[in-house]
Amino acid sequence: MNLWSDPRWGDALGHLPDYLGNHVRVSLAALALGLLISLPLALLARHRPGLRSALLGFASIVQTVPGLALLALFYPLLLALAALTAQWLGFGFSAFGFLPAMLALALYSMLPVLRNTITGLQGIDPAILEAAQAVGMTPRQSLRMVELPLALPVIMAGIRTAAVWVIGTATLSTPIGQTSLGNYIFAGLQTQNWVFVLFGCAASAVLALIVDQILALIETGAQHRSRLRIMMGVIGVVALIAAALIPSLSRTRQGYVVGAKTFTEQYILAALMTQRLQAAGLPATTREGLGSSVIFNALESGDIDAYVDYSGTLWANQMHRTDIKARDELLADLKAALGRQHITLLGKLGFENAYALVMPRARAEALGIHSIADLTAHAGEMSVAGDYEIFSRPEWASLRKAYSLTFRQQRQMQPDFMYAAIAAGEVDVIAGYTSDGLIAKYNLVVLGDPKHAIPPYDAMVLLAPKRENDSALRDALIPLLGKIDIATMREANLRASGNQSVADVAKWLWEKIRAKETAH
What we know:
Layout: H1 8-45, H2 49-64, H3 67-88, H4 98-122, H5 126-134, H6 139-169, H7 182-191, H8 194-224, H9 227-251, E1 256-261, H10 264-279, E2 284-290, H11 292-300, E3 306-310, H12 311-318, H13 327-340, E4 344-352, E5 355-360, H14 361-367, H15 372-375, E6 383-386, H16 394-403, E7 409-412, H17 415-423, E8 429-433, H18 438-441, E9 444-446, E10 458-463, H19 471-477, H20 486-496, H21 502-519
Parallel strand pairs: 1-2, 6-7, 6-8
Antiparallel strand pairs: 3-10, 4-10, 5-8, 5-9
Helix pairs in contact: 1-2, 1-4, 1-6, 1-8, 1-9, 2-4, 3-4, 4-6, 5-6, 6-8, 7-8, 8-9, 10-21, 20-21
């Protein structure tokens, strides 16, 4: 199929108003906050070498922190602060999405604004300042009427740089719940939807160029005293603000919010749940690409209403349990623990998506490897790849301890790249997922776990505490429980990794569920 005739372009365009509006909104807010902080600090520090060095040093350190890490750090900090304000002051706030993204991006914008403002003011000819003083200007008048106008080109260059940085980094805010153009990129990478990846990258680049040119109009207009250019720049800023208001106006009617983590299966299940809510006449949207800990905290605090998680993930990561129990006993303990947090475990979907060690079938058969126990003797000569979190999870520690596993090399990568890497022979073993359709696509085999080091990973629907007694939500989602088997989920994952949109795969999955009900 020709890339440009791919029907997924239409799907991408359909998301543009929401993604673009949210992206502009958080970028403008972060840039405005960054300017409100940076400009006064720069003016204060321009004649104070110690303060100047400290500010520039701090802003430089912020720039060395990876954007995704900086964004992710703000969420737990704000979550703790929200809990404290609720306890001590009687009111809380949402630590999800917009606020942590805005604060992190504001920090990112500080360095070029601080540096250029200080440089621009220090670069003014001392003779000009002496002349201003000689005609009787006060320091404040000199700053307003002489120094700032002369330094404006350098200051605006810093603001333009900050704007481009903020717009680019804002694409990384998706995992902490802020909808942005990064939703295209994260979803596209997970589902191998390269149309989405291209669309997201292009839209972000075009937006950065447009904002840069709008600010350039204001800069050159002020420099050459051209009211026309300044007016055109102001109109551009107003247009951006209007675009930023689009998601705010629609947010009041969004209703239920269904969350999804950052892999293909989660996008499909979130779309399926959203479609079922909408079919029941309930307004619903999805919030996709959320990190594992972020999504659970978002459910607990009521920022999302429902999502699918896995029993083993909750057991190890949220309940901090390292003991492995039988499936029914683990589920009962888990349900009781969640109940104490007023989180409803609605039920199991019917399949298990467990972590598993996976090898090429031909090589496993040649080496006589059928289980992880068989792998132990060969692991020292092999490399293993996993997703971004597996090697720091309790399950991996349990696996290594149970089987005394030591690999020659560990590598982390995107899940879809991980499967392609093992198919190409670049790694020997991967920590894959049992419900992934790519296992069959690349002729891989799941190694057995005779010591049961990996806990059960039943896919389960969770509801937020505020939806504990929501019968409409329950009635819409209960028809999904126990209806999705492992083979159907694998096929759905494989379809989403092809050229079908996630929404279409979710519709196909519902049709399969209905067909099975009819057959019975």
